[in-house]
């Protein structure tokens, strides 16, 4: 008998030196860039090695990104690439003396290069030494350049290198002043005691910033310690704004307090030595976050690149890194088409238009700009909640192009299109009502851009190149999608569809019903306010709230806390899995007089497990479930705490409380599609 097993992979993902890895995802493909390992390149040499992959598992060498600058430049470090209007900007550090270095930017039309230095030195006029550039684009479109500089005053921290930020007016222009982000303040960040090259002072290091935004907060991951010693490790700081007002004395960013007295988020062990200098990238399903970082293995000196999941637990980060044992391969979208074959797959059906695949571009193009309306329908059905990526660009003409969404009976339709005058327009074709928003003024329609559409219940959310554009309230949920052009020729690339929702409950205008939640009893007891979903009744009894459809394999999570308990009753909260024609399985966290216990109800043999001393359900905790046909894996605040053999063909996830009022944030579920391997 053939038994299907989920495919696995292990770190490092490339068994050669590849320090300071930055991974970029663009149009369904990954590109990894690394520090140049030759300190003083020869005359004809190129710098910055590049790898590429479509699945984050199998990687191939591309070559090197750019020609070196020649004398007096050396030490080419930490390249990062960002995309704007279909152009690629590589920010990198280079030295002219041992402690004189600056950040420059090179430009290319393709992510694999060749990159050409722009001639712009971004930091030489601001600080004498800067390395480790990181560009972050905020939701308002503002770009920020994070970097590592030196902090030589001892009044507000330890002496050494730390991270700072400045605004970018455009890809080539920094607007001063530079503002403090994170400087060394902790003993574990020691680089070298009595460092001779720095006058004999104890020198500390914080470096390698990587920033993301979640639930209105900003998170800056960083590395600390000495990159070639075993004390190198990672942690993070958070803030309510990407850049504070106080210059180099600013204190807007606050270091994570740590767990069990350890302020490091990631640290090494005997197998993975000195993990650090990470970047952050989305997985193939556009949902799962990963960190790319380097580490050294026993007996080796080269820093090799690694990848591990990154989880956002409410207002905290968690990762299992640094791992060296086999891990599940990244989850794939339910549908992905990179248009690598010369003909369209059978899932596509053209009802009108001249649709042809252009393999060289990895795209499908509708060539006839004279057609009033041309449609390419995708036969894959949309689930109850989904995330759809479509990359697109205008080829010719002055019409519109984009995505058409239709309900089950194709009587109701929503059209999301880009117009020749740089507007994103969402039109209800049944009622004629429209919502429109201007694209960034510098948008070049003839270059690739990304549309990201997601449906959570009756809320359709639309992003353009990562910028939030609009939320649309749907009368009916959508069940199919198509590509559309009107009086223009347009190209479409890297289409992917993932079954997913993530509800943060940040808008009081959204009700649970609008988001697709339904209650087994009274929905009125579930309310959204104060940036959370609240089950408001603390009366004796059980409350359950469900969302979405059933999956044969899924992963889901919620961050929760107890807000009030019924008198003289045992309070509990947790997640419930409901499968057709069987009793629900509920993973409860129960507040007992002596602490908290885990209980799994709905099984033939109920399970009870005591949680660590000091656990309290009045604090935020994150419960994550991985549901597979024969196994239920339970994770609490990150680590796995139980793995149960369960026979469950399909299930949908819900929230549950018993004898308690509770609050929930960061609730998500993803239907999973994996690569598998067969064993006899």
Automatic annotation (TrEMBL):
The record marks 132 as: Important for catalytic activity, responsible for pKa modulation of the active site Glu and correct orientation of both the proton donor and substrate. It comes from the Bacteria. GO terms for molecular function: hydrolase activity, hydrolyzing O-glycosyl compounds. SUPFAM superfamilies: Arabinanase/levansucrase/invertase. The active site is at 20 (proton acceptor), 207 (proton donor). Gene3D superfamilies: Exo-inulinase, domain 1 (2.60.120.560), Glycosyl hydrolase domain, family 43 (2.115.10.20). GO terms for biological process: carbohydrate metabolic process. Keywords: Glycosidase, Hydrolase. InterPro entries: Glyco_hydro_43, Glyco_hydro_beta-prop_sf, Glycosyl_Hydrlase_43. Belongs to the glycosyl hydrolase 43 family. This is Beta-xylosidase. It comes from Dictyobacter alpinus.
């Amino acid at each position: 008998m053939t038994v299907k097993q989920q495919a696995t992979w292990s770190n490092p993902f490339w068994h050669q030196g590849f320090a300071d890895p930055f991974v970029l995802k663009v149009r369904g493909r990954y590109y990894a860039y690394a520090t140049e390992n030759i300190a003083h390149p020869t005359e004809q040499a190129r710098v910055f090695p590049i790898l590429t992959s479509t699945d984050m598992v199998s990687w191939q060498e591309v070559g090197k990104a750019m020609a070196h600058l020649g004398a007096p430049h050396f030490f080419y470090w930490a390249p990062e690439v960002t995309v704007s209007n279909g152009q690629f900007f590589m920010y990198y550090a280079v030295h002219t003396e041992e402690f004189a270095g600056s950040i420059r930017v090179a430009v290319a039309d393709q992510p694999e290069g060749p990159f050409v230095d722009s001639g712009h030195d971004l930091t030489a006029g601001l600080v004498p030494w800067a390395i480790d550039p990181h560009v972050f684009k905020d939701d308002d479109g503002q770009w920020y350049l994070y970097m590592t500089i030196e902090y030589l005053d001892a009044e507000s921290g330890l002496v050494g290198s730390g991270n700072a930020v400045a605004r970018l007016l455009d890809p080539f222009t920094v607007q001063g002043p530079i503002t403090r982000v994170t400087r060394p303040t902790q003993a574990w960040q020691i680089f070298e005691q009595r460092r001779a090259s720095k006058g004999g002072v104890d020198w500390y290091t914080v470096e390698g910033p990587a920033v993301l935004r979640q639930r209105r907060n900003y998170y800056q991951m960083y590395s600390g310690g000495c990159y070639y010693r075993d004390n190198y490790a990672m942690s993070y700081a958070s803030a309510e704004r990407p850049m504070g007002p106080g210059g180099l004395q600013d204190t807007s960013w606050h270091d994570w307090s740590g767990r069990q007295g350890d302020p490091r988020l990631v640290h090494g062990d005997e197998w993975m030595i000195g993990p650090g200098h990470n970047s952050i990238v989305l997985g193939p399903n556009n949902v799962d976050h990963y960190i790319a970082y380097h580490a050294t293995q026993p007996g080796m000196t080269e820093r090799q690149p690694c990848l591990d999941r990154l989880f956002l637990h409410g207002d905290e980060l968690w990762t299992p890194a640094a791992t060296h044992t086999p891990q599940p391969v990244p989850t794939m979208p339910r549908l992905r088409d990179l248009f690598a074959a010369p003909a369209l797959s059978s899932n596509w059906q053209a009802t009108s238009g001249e649709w042809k695949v252009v393999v060289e571009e990895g795209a499908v193009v509708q060539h006839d700009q004279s057609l009033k309306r041309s449609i390419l329908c995708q036969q894959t059905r949309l689930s109850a909640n989904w995330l759809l990526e479509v990359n697109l660009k205008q080829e010719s003409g002055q019409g519109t192009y984009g995505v058409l969404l239709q309900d089950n009976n194709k009587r109701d339709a929503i059209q999301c299109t880009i117009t020749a005058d740089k507007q994103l327009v969402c039109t209800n074709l049944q009622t004629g009502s429209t919502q429109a928003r201007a694209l960034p003024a510098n948008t070049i329609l003839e270059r690739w851009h990304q549309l990201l559409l997601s449906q959570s219940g009756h809320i359709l959310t639309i992003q353009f190149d990562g910028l939030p554009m609009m939320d649309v309230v749907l009368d009916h949920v959508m069940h199919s999608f198509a590509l559309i052009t009107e009086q223009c020729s347009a190209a479409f690339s890297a289409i992917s569809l993932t079954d997913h929702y993530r509800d943060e409950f940040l808008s009081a205008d959204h009700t649970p019903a609008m988001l697709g939640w339904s209650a087994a009893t009274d929905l009125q007891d579930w309310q959204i306010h104060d940036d959370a979903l609240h089950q408001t009744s603390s009366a004796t009894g059980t409350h359950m709230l469900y969302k979405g459809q059933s999956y044969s394999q899924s992963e889901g999570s919620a961050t929760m806390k107890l807000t009030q308990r019924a008198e003289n009753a045992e309070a509990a909260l947790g997640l419930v899995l409901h499968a057709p024609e069987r009793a629900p399985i509920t993973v409860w966290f129960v507040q007992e007089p002596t602490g908290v216990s885990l209980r799994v109800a709905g099984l033939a043999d109920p399970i009870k497990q005591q949680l660590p001393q000091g656990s309290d359900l009045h604090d935020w905790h994150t419960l994550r479930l991985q549901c597979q046909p024969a196994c239920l894996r339970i994770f609490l605040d990150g680590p796995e705490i139980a793995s149960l053999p369960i026979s469950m063909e399909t299930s949908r996830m819900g929230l549950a409380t018993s004898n308690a009022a509770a609050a929930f944030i960061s609730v998500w579920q993803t239907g999973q599609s994996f690569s598998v391997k067969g064993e006899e």
